[in-house]
Amino acid sequence: MSFPKTRLRRLRYNPILRDLVSETSVSVNDLIYPIFICEGENIKNEISSMPGQFQLSVDNAVELCKTAVSKGVKSILLFGIPAEKDEHGHVACSDNSIVQRAIKAIKKECLDILLIADVCNCEYTTHGHCGTIIDGDVDNDSTLETLAAQSVSLAKAGADIIAPSDMMDGRVASIRTALDNAGFEKTPILSYAVKYSSAFYGPFRDAADSAPTFGDRKTYQMNPANTDEAIREAEQDVWEGADMLMVKPALSYLDVIYRVKQNFDLPLVAYNVSGEYAMVKATAANNWIDEQRMIMEIMTSIKRAGADIIITYHALEVADILNKK
């Protein structure tokens, strides 16, 4: 290439042309919106560390889902905040548990919606860990039994996708077997295949009331220093029957998103997590950034890294931005 004959700026002067040659695009069809369901009626408690996000009773969750669908966001990820907890998270396996009831209510009112049920025990255990505690640590194999039972119950309630986030070894195979045996062989599994032990989850702990009462989650969630291990985790889940893969968090792990996408041809989801959301909201509150531009730059970077789908608390804002174009 030789200047002045070659001028790369020629394709940048016209805004329509800039859009025409854009290599990466974000659509409302790429978005999944996570919401938090709590007990009670007419409850809408704002989460202090996540401005604009709420703990919602089932009735208000139904209304929020209607709003999301009206904006074009038709995929919802559900997290439950139960009234009672137990040592093993068995409450999550009840057909009358909070998420199961929410699924039934939302499906009754919103026909054109996809409901993804997070499967984990941390919101449902008294100790806040993701499974049954034996000898001071989460016991892998006994936890699989609870996860499988929880998954079947959620599928019976009407969940369209089961999304295990616990990071137990073998959980995809265990859940797949349980679903198939219960007649839900058509229900896909979105595996949190690569979930790091991250500081970016802090606000989520407030939202879901799921902070561990002792220790941490480093024996089951991944070491942020490792990427080869991410490929092993994803490969194992593919072998066990996962239909979709996830990398969580997103922004500090764009390289991992890229590597996973290069190695596997399954749909890849990236989770733009609570801490990433909270940083944008905090800087915007101080008028230090152009919030809409930053949100869209973040979404574009995640798509550019290789994600096909983005779970984000910004979903409704992104939809509003895109719908104005």
Short description:
The protein has helices at 15-20, 58-70, 98-109, 140-157, 171-181, 202-208, 228-240, 254-263, 274-285, 291-305, 315-324; strands at 31-38, 44-46, 54-57, 75-81, 114-119, 133-134, 137-138, 161-164, 190-195, 244-248, 268-272, 309-312. With 325 residues, the protein is α/β, with parallel strands linked by helices.
Please supply descriptive tags for the structure shown above.
single chain; 325 residues; alpha/beta; TIM Barrel; ten-stranded mixed beta sheet; two-stranded antiparallel sheet; 39% helix; 17% strand; globular
Q: How would you characterize this protein structure?
A:
This protein is α/β, with parallel strands linked by helices and 325 residues long. The protein has a single domain, classed as TIM Barrel, CATH 3.20.20.70. Helices cover 39% and strands 17% of the residues. Strands 1, 2, 3, 4, 5, 8, 9, 10, 11 and 12 form a ten-stranded mixed β-sheet that branches. It has a two-stranded antiparallel sheet with strand order 6-7. The radius of gyration is 20 Å and the shape is globular. The relative contact order is 0.13.
- What spatial form do the alpha-carbon principal axes imply? globular
Distance between the termini: 35 Å
Would you identify the regions where 5 or more consecutive residues have pLDDT less than 50? none
From the alpha carbons, calculate the radius of gyration and give it in angstroms: 20 Å
* Order of H and E elements: HEEEHEHEEEHEHEHHEHEHHEH
What is the number of helices? 11
* Top CATH class: Alpha Beta
Report strand %: 15-25%
CATH topology name: TIM Barrel
CATH superfamily: Aldolase class I
* Derived structural class: alpha/beta
Structural domain count: 1
Mean pLDDT: 94
**What kind of sheet is the major sheet?**
10 strands, mixed
Give helix % range: 25-40%
CATH architecture label name: Alpha-Beta Barrel
